[in-house]
Structure formats: C-alpha cells, structure tokens
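OP here, attaching both records as promised.
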Amino acid sequence: HSLGLSQRMSILSREEFYFFFVIGFWGKAPRIKAIAKITIPTSKTVLYLILMHTSLATSLFWIVLSITNQVPFHSILAVNAFATSIGYIAFFAPAGIGIKDGLLVIYLSLFMDQPTAFLVTASHRIIYILTDIILGIIANFKSKIIT
C-alpha cells in the first residue's frame, strides 16, 4: 500500500523538499510515479556561500585595483553578483561559463580597454576554478572523516 500525497508531504523534514512527477490521472486523483528528493541547504551552508562569493568578488576587486582605482568595491560586488546570477540562470551554459565572463568583460570595458578587461576576467576565472578545486578537496576530505 503506497502513501498518499498528503501523507508523503507530512513526513518531510525541514531540510528536504520533494519534486513530485505526476504522470497521469486514473480515477479522480493523480498517481505519483516518481519522487526526486532535493536537500535544501542549511543556513550555515548559505552563509558559507555568501562568504565564498564575497571573497571571490573581493579577489576581482584586488585584480581591478592593481590596474585602476576608478571602480568602487560596491560596484564590483554588484556586477559580480549580477554576472554570476545570470550565468547560473543561463541553462545552456554549464556553470555560467562564458555568460558571466562576457558580462564582466562588458562592464570592466567601461573602465579599461577591452583586452585588459578580458585578461582581468580570465585571471578571475582562474581564481574561481582554483577556489572550486580547493573547496572540493576540502569537502571530499571532510566527508571521509565523517563517514
């Protein structure tokens, strides 16, 4: 005997969210064929993500500051957040590669020549990739300690 939709919803913990795939109607109620479980990040994880992205924006600011001091930090923080968000939303570009970088080049071209803006963006992409690798290694190490 399978659980009904209301019974399944009542057993969810606050960290879990389920997507229900309804495939058809048989009788009066839809039948649920499959459930995909998604884990919602905890507030601690969200704070780590905010810290990570603020640190990455700060690294971009330091790269830009080594070339020109015409760009304020809050502007770099805002354009980095905007470009990263648009990159994540762009479903056709994995991890926003190309979208985020293109937006950064366009914005930075307002303050420096385009080849320099491209080099700044490429340098920041390298830092971004290294950050992902380092955090992946740390997460892998922590998961081995926990299990």
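Record two, same layout:
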Amino acid sequence: MTRLRVTPGGRGGPGRLLVTRRDGTTVAWYDRDAGRISLFPGAGRDEVLAALAPYLTGQVSVGPPPVPTPADLDRLSLHPDDDLAPNRPGEALHGALDAAPDPGGGPGERWRRRLREAAVRAELAAQRDVGERLDRLDGAGWRVLHAIPLPGAAPSHVDHLAIGPAGVLAVRTVAARDRRVRIAGPLLRVGRAAPLPQLRWAWHAAECAALALATAVRPVLAVAEPRTLDGGPGGDVADVRVLRDTGIPALASLGGVLKPADIEALYATARDRRTWLSRPPATAGAGGPPGPAR
C-alpha cells in the first residue's frame, strides 16, 4: 500500500494535486489542466502513479518539474513555521518539561514544584497515549493533527483534531492515571481532585475548530487509563462524546460523512497555522483548564 498522500494544491488552484509523504514533504504534483505529472528527484515514479491513479484522466506525461519560480515554491509547501503537521501530542508540555527548573525556594516550594512536574508528566503521557491511538487510524482513512494552538482565551489548544470518514472530531484528553472518573452534568472529576468543566472545554474547542474550518466539528472527550468511568463512557454527555482511550480504535469502523477528497482538503486547511489565527471570544464563564498545555 502506498504511503503517499494526494491533496488539493491549495494556492495552486483546483487543477493541481500535490503528492506528499506523511511528513508533509512534496514529492510530485499533478497538473490536471496540462495533463502532466512533475516528479521531484528521489520520488518513486511507480509509487506516485499508484497514489494518483484514482485522479488521472486521459493521457498524462511524467517528468521532472520545470524550474520553479518563487510563486511555485510558495504554492507547493507551507513555511515550516506555519505547518502544524509535525506537532507532537502535548507539544507545549514538552517545552514545560525542558525548561530549566528554578533552583530557588525553600523545601515547601521545591515539593510543590515536584508535584507540578509530576502532573505535567502524567498529562503528557495521556496526550501521547491518545495521540498514538488516533494516529493508528491512518489506515482507515483518518488524518490527525496534534496540539493546535488557539490564540486568545482558553482553551488555548485543540489537543487532537481527527479528520476522517466519520467527520471532524476535536478530541480533548483527560489524564485519569488509574483513578475513578465521574461525570455529572458539565463537570468531570478525576479521583479526589476538584471537579472541572472538561465537557464545556471540549465543546468550546470544537466550536473554535468548526468556525476556523467552516465545517461541522464534533467534540470528543478521551479519558486515558481510567480505573472506572461513570456517567457517560461510549455515549454522549451534553453533546460531547465521551470514551475511554481504549475505545478510540472503534472510530475506524465509522463513516458515511466525508469522502477521501474532502478529508484531504480539510486536512490541508487545518495544518496551516494561519487558519487558526482568528477565533471567536471565549464563551462567557468558560474559564480555562490549568497547566501549560492549555
């Protein structure tokens, strides 16, 4: 099976399709108006043709690309600073852990600092768990982005955005760490911690994504490693789908909403950081979750 992706050319116009690797590197493009496939050096001709086979019409020529102009280069790829595809699950949490700890403070402050660091590590582990499970949906036609920044008020990130046959999902992660999770109304409580409006945060992140992408986005709350999950596993609570991390693979069996071309078009839009620069003000009273990743 080919590991290449075919996406609309964006600023290249509707007559151009880009062929890219999973990391976003462009290896070829197909100019439908000219009937020509341009291969970059090192691209596998047979693999590119196999990826483009569903889109080819009539006779086509295959060869190296013409010498690109600056405008061509701008159309072919995003600037690395604008491409969200390389983002890791919990991207901001990596920065929080990498920052040098403040050696100052007394024993009490150092103890609190260790507690905060342990909480960040647990949150990062949950983000990785959910993110890796979502990434495995790739074979079922899903495209996934992680840690999409939302400028302005909370929530400051969409933890994971999954685009696939079942539609677009904004997935928020909750780290349970083998503790009981209880859902009552809009509040979610992990163990003995204070209840938090996790469902409201999930819904608001989905609302921001829907406005940015101009399409319907469903909020999902993925609870990582709960001992028990009371009040909504596998169902909807306040219009938010709640599931365990182990329930993510079941999304592969869902479909009937988006076609492959629609999935690729939405993914191409979503991976561009500039898509997310404008967003609505936070819902009144929405508040924001604690922690550096939020």
